[in-house]
Each structure stands twice: as C-alpha cells, then as structure tokens.
Amino acid sequence: MKQASSRNGRGHRAYRRQQAALKARVKRLNLPCYWCGQPIDTDLPGTERMSFTADHPDALANGGRLVGQQLQPMHRSCNSRKGNREDIDLEGWAAS
C-alpha cells in the first residue's frame, strides 16, 4: 500500500492556511528570515531562491507534524540549507 504524501494528505488545507497567515504577517511586519536575519520579499515567485517559505521547526522528515507547529519564516534557500536539522541557536532572531 502506497503511503500518502504529507503535501496532499490530512491537514494540508490547515497547513496552507497557517502558511498564508504567516506570509501575510511577514509582509505586514517586515519580519526577517529566521535563519539568516535578512528581509524576505514576499512578492517573489515561489521558484526564486530568496522567496518566502514557511519552515517547520520539527522537520517532517524527523517525525514533525504538518500542522500544529509554530511555523518560521525563511528564504527558500535558507530553508534548504537548514534541511532537517533542529540544532540551530537563533536567540537574537526576534530582537532583530
């Protein structure tokens, strides 16, 4: 039996709503990338490396849930570099 992808399975719509709300908040408050601290242009197409993505602190690959996590704004390239690591120390992120 083939396992359903988390991208189209249970909770996907809730995740998309949470992601859209975060993107709107980033745009409204000009929040920086959680990983590098640089501004995020929320108007860039999703294929651009510096476009907005919503990061799961507990990576899905490590057993994290699709919904129910506090998503973090990141550039697509920063999210890719972070991968499924959890050991990041970004204490000053909220202060920037």
TrEMBL record:
Residues 33-85 form the HNH domain. Transmembrane segments: none annotated. InterPro entries: HNH (IPR002711), HNH_nuc (IPR003615). It holds the Pfam family HNH. Residues 74-96 are annotated as: Disordered. Keywords: Endonuclease, Hydrolase, Nuclease. One of its GO terms (molecular function) is endonuclease activity. This is HNH endonuclease. It comes from Scrofimicrobium canadense.
